[in-house]
Amino acid sequence: MTAGIVIMAFPAQEADFETVTVKTWPLQQKTIAPQNSTFYGSSMQPGMWFQLNISSSDSVKVVISILQHLGGSEKDTVVGPFIGTSFHQKATVSVTATYWIDIYNENTSPVTLYGNVLVQQEEANYLTVYPYVVPGFLIMLGGVTTLLFGTLKKPGKPSKPRSKHKKKIES
Prior knowledge:
Elements lengths: L1 H7 L3 E15 L3 E3 L3 E9 L3 E22 L2 E21 L4 E9 L5 E19 L3 H20 L19
Antiparallel strand pairs: 1-7, 2-7, 3-6, 4-5, 4-6, 4-7
């Protein structure tokens, strides 16, 4: 019975992962002049990513690069260049750095941007669960049943003691 109670009380941790938006860069009705660009920067670390949800009225070029790395200043292209009117993708980062998204208008007329850029990461929520409750309960129930059966059972008639000598049967 005691073993069942101990087993029932044994806890375990279970992780539940959830996507969390850390920052948002809205692009609703943002106009870029001809031969110009707009940008967004964010300090990020491994396990984080950009979620691009960008649409434009005409073709634009999108480049994601590292502006400043922990080891010094450098400008490395990480993702891109992409050219088009719609960008809906996830761009993960590999090192801790300041990342930069450049959106270039290489056209001769202004371009209007719509959508947003999200900086996201997964966050773990730890829950305490008791996975051994059912087996522990069954063991405890067996112990209680045995205890009750042993205390409530009436003692039987005492048996006659056996003699150590066998009697000979004569025929």
